Structure formats: structure tokens, C-alpha cells
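SAMPLE LOG
Freezer: B-3
Tube label: C17
Construct: single chain, 130 aa
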Amino acid sequence: MAENYKEITSEILRISGANPTKCMQCGKCSGTCPAYSAMEYHPHQFAYLIRSGNVEELLKSDASLYCLSCFACSERCPRGVQPAKLIEAVRLQILREQDGDAIKPEDIPCLLDENLPQQALVSAFRKYRK
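STRUCTURE (predicted):
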């Protein structure tokens, strides 16, 4: 994992587009999370740790992998923090650190299928680009 956690924090914020500084730690997001019992860190804790710059703990944890991406936490948040986007950004950062660029542009032609929706290609580039 990269040692420069300040850069990683800013990258997570850029990817997510969320603003964890708006979080007041009320816990409503965590209270509605269906994966609450499986997660080491809960949605409101993601917002707190990212806001405070302690992303190292999140990157070492499997908590982001248990997120169902149901966006219940984002719907329930009274301040519009969007914790689900923060969790997804952490998950993407973990994947990028592990796999690097999993898809290279020159590899795409051999992977294409005529029935493959273009949205899948765009999604793959968003997920794996640095």
C-alpha cells in the first residue's frame, strides 16, 4: 500500500464526490445499513476516518467489501454526506492498490463482444483508471 495517505485521502474524496465534513456522526446511516453486523467499520465511521485522514485503517480493513451498495445509508443521511459513495471509493482504492491498472487500452479489442454494452466499458475504465 502507498505510504502517502494524504494523497490517498484526496483521491478517495475526488472519486466519491462526497463531503465527509458535513457528517455530524448521528449514526442514522449505520442504523439503516443491512450489512452493519458484518462490517468492522460502519458508514458513519467511514466518513469520520476519511475526514480525519485515517484512511490507513480503512484500507487494511475488509469493511468496504461487505457493503451491499444499496445506498440505504445515503438515503437516510440528514446532511447528504453520501457514505455509500465514500465506501465505494475506498473499495476502488483498495482494488487499484492490489491490481494496478487491470485493463489496459491495448487489451480491449480482444475482450470486446458485440453484445457487450458500452456502459460496461466506461464503468471498467472509471473503476481501474489512475
